[in-house]
Amino acid sequence: MTPPPLAAAPALPRHHVPDHGLVEYVAGACTDGAALAFACHLSLCASCAAEAAALEDVGGRILEASDGETMAPGALEGLLARLGTTPQLGSPSAETLASPEFLAACGLPAPLLRALPPADGWRTVIPGMRVVDLPFAAPGGAVRLVRFKGGVTIPLHDHGGPEYIVVFTGALEEKDEGDGRRFGRGDVSIRLPGERHAQRATPGEPCVALVVNEGALRPLTLRGRLLRAIARD
Amino acid sequence: MAAIASRGDRAAFGLLFNRYAPKIKAHLVARGAAAGAADELTQEVMLIVWRKAGLYDASRGSIAAWLYTISRNFLFNNARAERRRRLEPGSEMEFPEPAPLPTSEQALLAAERSRALATSLAVLPPEQREVLEGAYWRGQTLQECADERQLPLGTVKTRVRLALARLRGLMTAVRSTE
Is the CB of A88 less than 8 angstroms away from the CB of B116? Predict the structure, then answer.
């Protein structure tokens, strides 16, 4: 597989995390999968990252406003005694990660790259769609990095639970009952149960995306049901 | 914070501890930490603060905001480890770091924040403050906030929006998200 091309000046994300989602993310009230998806979007979207920083400031003031709970006597002394054996981290530095050539060009956030198995660790779910599971719990669903072959379609389906997708390279287009939006690098797509759509990876280029499903997909077409039957989840 | 990071200044760390450890403990208790475990967990959080002091970036926000996020991440990672117990261990994964703020936006935010700091939480009407505290302090989703108060979700979202607008001096009240 040839490395997917990366645009020289990547467009800024156009589909963002809604404000109330950012509040829940900053407050630590999201599910694991949603939090991962939002963190991935924030890593690629300066606008939402700035918004999150402002929301964290609110968290700081709520912390500041707390009367606090008295610590047990000797807590500080006990902790100071442990500091000697606790190394401090240096400033953040750019890290270079060895990654398979096909992924090097995808611009994945470092923690995702680190979580990936070698190239042969990907498994085919349906033709044109290979996945690797990420270490996050998603009851009744899955948290995965997915590589769609350009042009692959996912037939019309509904969702048994919320779905969060963040695109890293290539693009996913909505089809049929979706509202025709196109999701490119950094864009986040959020679909709730009852919201149906079909998707297609833009032909001509592979698409790599984080896909979080907090419930099973419910295929609504014959082709979708056939794919479900052959899918190797 | 700089002294803690660059010189490993324990006296500075002690001051930080005395001021914030009780508040962090209160946060952990509000999130359901057992009274007996809260002290130990607070120490764990403060150890992370010690280790990561060099990563604190003043241009991103106040020390309290940073401590809040450390405490939140600690709670989140603990809960996540709990949920994943049945999955294979040793596959922990961190979250990606947020995108760097463009310099101009950073300056704008800093200015906005210092103005916002003058606006304390105390100015919020109780019903707005309650929903913020439900989310930020107790970790409720907005749906859970709504259920607990027997309100429509839309009402809770509106209260959050109004509260944030008020706190920020009505600056970035409406942000288009699509």
Answer: no
